[in-house]
From TrEMBL:
CDD domains: VOC (cd06587)
Boundaries of every VOC domain copy: 4-114
InterPro entries on file: Glyas_Bleomycin-R_OHBP_Dase, Glyoxalase_6, VOC_core
Source species, domain of life: Bacteria
Protein known as: VOC family protein
Length: 117
């Protein structure tokens, strides 16, 4: 059996707004939109992507799944994302080498520190 990872589904109250926020934050392209769905990918033919799907439920607790990103310059990337609308959040991580942020709907993601050699 062979599986190809196509996308991560993100439930969202406003898929278009949140999907566009992530497209802008990541520099990705929009590959599909409808009233209830907004899909982005690194490039039209590259996967995996993120697919934002409408839900009426507002996020109420810590996410069970989140994305980790490793930038070249952690401080600059955190500053850029906060200026773009992300916010720092405390999910009980304590003092760590990564920074936990949340997107406009409260979905947590991490900006990792420099990779150890």
């Amino acid at each position: 059996m062979t599986l190809e990872w196509e996308q991560v589904i993100v439930h969202s109250v406003d898929p278009a707004a949140l999907g566009q926020w992530w497209a802008d934050a990541l520099g990705w392209v929009v590959v599909h939109t409808s009233d209830d769905e907004f899909e982005i990918r690194p490039a039209p033919d590259r996967m995996p992507g993120l697919d934002f799907v409408r839900t009426d439920e507002i996020k109420k607790s810590k996410s069970r799944l989140h994305l980790d990103f490793r930038p070249e310059d952690q401080a600059a990337e955190v500053a850029r994302l906060v200026a773009h609308g992300a916010r720092r959040v405390d999910i009980g991580q304590g003092e760590q080498s990564w920074v936990v942020l949340a997107d406009p709907e409260g979905n947590e993601f991490c900006i990792l520190g420099q990779r150890s050699q």
